[in-house]
Design brief:
The protein has about 375 residues and is an alpha/beta fold. The protein has two domains: about 160 residues, no CATH class; about 170 residues, 3-Layer(aba) Sandwich (Rossmann fold), CATH 3.40.50.720. It is about 40% helix and about 20% strand. It is built from 13 helices and 16 strands. It has a six-stranded parallel beta sheet with strand order 8-7-6-9-10-11. Helix 5 links the parallel strand 4 and strand 5.
Length: about 375
């Protein structure tokens, strides 16, 4: 039996904390966060029933690090590192051979490097398989709306981050054109040069997210922003938006106001095994998980107790390696989700029709 641990944390202070402490739904978020500072990391569930195609079995544990994204960005970094490392030690004490960093724990500071140096067991951020599934989902959804990648304009928001950079390199080599958006002009130009070297024929960069989005058919957004950066008026009709970020980059208003846009969550994966049970409700259908969790699980199943993905860069080779590992072990993309709900074929058909209607209306008013 292979063993792993995965560190989770509250994304929304009131909503997530109230799952264990119902009174929290009536408290101000700042008060909840104050209380979280004095709460220790702890095991929150035992994960069972995982069985790969080759017969390997695994069990694991979710370990909660009680800090919100806002706290991880505002509290002293050494303090945040210590809390995350405490969670890793709990996983090691339970018998895990590797620990994955979920959501903001994987991006804060140096992207897991310091945490790995202080953890008693290897650490992975899961970003390699997150990139693989984000690309697979975005390309597949785009085709379902009637376009190939070669005839599509792509935008990557958060292109200077580890996930965004590699998504840009892979997508840029095949897209009609690609726009890169981020906060640092010089780093954006470095990424743009890498995308050109990887085969990108038409590459632009900007610090203006709205400008990057205005012509995009396919959007991959993966910033480390605490609040939404993609809003209803930013998107063209028929756009596919793959939101890999946690907290989300896409405003919930997009789902309410833009029926002609398809928003999907990147990295939703079916984990192999007939009786997979996470014993924790994070809003997914039974037996499915985020890609970052899945990378941790597949490394354990393969007996690869190593710090596979760390830091602020993910190589194209790492992305391909995790995709090959997933295929071999039985992990696969589990359809799409949008704002915690499954995306059905009917949903896709409605988006296609709404996009066609919007395009017709625009041409009539031109």
């Amino acid at each position: 039996m292979k063993r792993f641990a995965f560190v989770i944390h509250p994304i929304d202070a009131r909503r997530d904390t109230s799952r264990k402490y119902p009174i929290a739904r009536y408290l101000p978020e700042r008060l909840i966060e104050f209380g979280l500072k004095f709460t220790s990391p702890a095991k929150v569930s035992h994960i069972t029933g995982i069985r790969a195609k080759d017969g390997a079995e695994a069990e694991g544990w979710f370990i909660a690090c009680p800090l919100t994204p806002r706290q991880m960005l505002s509290l002293p970094l050494d303090y945040v590192y210590r809390r995350i490392t405490e969670a890793c030690r709990i996983g090691a004490d339970l018998g895990a051979g590797i620990v994955g960093l979920g959501a903001f724990t994987s991006v804060v500071g140096d992207g897991g490097v310091t945490i790995a140096a202080n953890s008693p067991i290897p650490v992975t951020t899961g970003n390699s398989y997150t990139v693989a599934t984000a690309i697979e989902a975005a390309v597949d959804a785009n085709e379902k709306l009637g376009r190939t990648l070669a005839e599509s304009s792509v935008a990557v928001i958060g292109a200077t981050g580890s996930i965004g950079r590699t998504c840009a390199m892979v997508l840029g080599a095949e897209a009609k054109d690609i726009a890169l958006a981020g906060r640092n002009t010089s780093r954006l130009e470095e990424v743009a040069d890498e995308v050109r070297a990887a085969g990108g024929q038409s590459v632009s960069s900007t610090t203006d997210i709205k400008k990057a989005l205005e012509c995009a058919d396919v959007v991959v957004t993966v910033t480390s922003a605490v609040d939404a950066v993609v809003h209803p008026a930013d998107l063209k009709p028929g756009a596919v938006v793959c939101d890999v970020a946690r907290p989300r980059d896409v405003s919930v208003r997009v789902a309410k106001e833009r029926p002609d846009v398809l928003v999907i969550e990147g990295g939703v994966v079916r984990v192999p095994g007939d009786n997979v049970n996470f014993n924790f409700n994070f809003g997914f259908e039974p037996g499915t998980a985020y890609a970052c969790m899945s990378e941790t699980i597949m490394l354990a199943l393969a007996g690869r107790y190593e710090s596979f993905t760390l830091g602020k860069t993910v190589s194209v080779e790492q992305v391909r390696e995790t995709q090959n590992m997933a295929n071999r072990l039985g992990f696969e993309l589990a359809g799409y989700r949008s704002f915690e709900r499954p995306v059905t074929e009917d949903t896709i058909a409605r988006v296609r029709q709404a996009a066609a209607d919007a395009a017709l209306s625009r041409s009539s008013n031109a």
